Amino acid sequence: MSLNETLGRNDAESGTETTLFDLVLRGARVLTAQGIAAREVGVRDGKIVAVEEFGAGLEGHRVIEVADDEVLLPGLVDTHVHVNEPGRTEWEGFESATKAAAAGGVTTIVDMPLNSIPPTVNLEALNIKREAASKNAFVNVGFWGGAVPGNKKDLRELHEAGVFGFKCFLLHSGVDEFPSLSVDEMEEDMAELQSFDSLMIVHAEDSQIIENAEQASGPEYAGFLNSRPRSAENTAIEQVIERARKTGVRAHVLHLSSSDALEMIRTAKAEGVKLTVETCPHYLTLLAEEIPDGATAYKCCPPIREDANRDLLWKGLEEGIIDCIVSDHSPSTVDLKDVENGDFGVAWGGVASLQLGLPLIWSEAKKRGLSLEQVITWMSVNPSKLAGLTHKAVIEAGRDADFAIFAPEESFEVDVKNLHHKNPISPYQGKKLHGVVRLSIIAGSDVDFQTPHGELIRREN
Q: Which SUPFAM superfamilies has this protein been placed in (predicted)?
């Protein structure tokens, strides 16, 4: 939108018309769809209404000058977050989770349907979740529904109420109130979702293979790794592909850790199966070979695998086989991680990294010669597409005015005491990272960590 197309005010001295925005951001490095360049951005009523070349002279009630060592980014979109409120708010809650998100440049999250009580498997539970989030959301919050045995009748109603799709497990979820589906039950629900063009997102590990594998016990990480073999992931992903092909549903593979599955995913996409795939910072930055015995902060499911596997996941991202990088922020209390005993068989499986995702991925991407633009495609643009959030993730006129001001060259050392996550435990403790989020902006307003003004969002029709 050019200046002369926007409503303005009369300048008394010159008699010319100029535009007064609610907020103007300008700097030498602004990431738009055309790449990083010097730009000025005008915001009105929470929306981006103008993007001009630097020097255009946009005027606003507020002006933010983006420093030379900073980049203005679109706010990140994280579609895989376990907030756990209500029911397990001592693990995490909307206030702590959304503050952590904002501190990490994430301006929109989509909350998973389990680990809260009740799980989001019917309309009543969704309304309870929304009520809990409405008071304490420092960023925008949306919700996934759950697909569990017996709730097929609830799926359409949840869809019409605005959930972004439905999550299922093909093995025990870790909590009894969110039971898993058999492969045939998943197919039945996929057919139902296809009838109203919804999305099935799947925790893809085969229950039978894991039941027959070596059981994790004690402090040895190698034993835990053997208890969640790649074959379990590969088999389950093959089943997801087969049933998605059969039903025509849109399907999404959650938290890919096994690089063995990349070729079958590539083939399925080439054949026209409606398939997308995500991976997570812990699979891209951590290595099985470096995990100390007893270090249960590293436990997650599927597990962190070896160096060669990590390299192949990065290659899969670069080749477009993997679409998204999201946190799978899955926190718990410190005692549930069994830190005192370090028993991988007992500890809760999950990594809390919502605040750290961007610096984690940028630090590793930088080593690999990858651009910040590419990182934002994986961490904002593509997750936004997955959820159908057409008004986010890009700095252009008509989009929501959600931003992160990021200093890519500044470094810091992770200290769990300085994170907003509710429980101070992280596999990244003491790790030196590049990239600091200096400010997050939601709908044109700064996140001040005092006043929550995130919105509850729904699936766009």
A: Composite domain of metallo-dependent hydrolases (SSF51338), Metallo-dependent hydrolases (SSF51556)
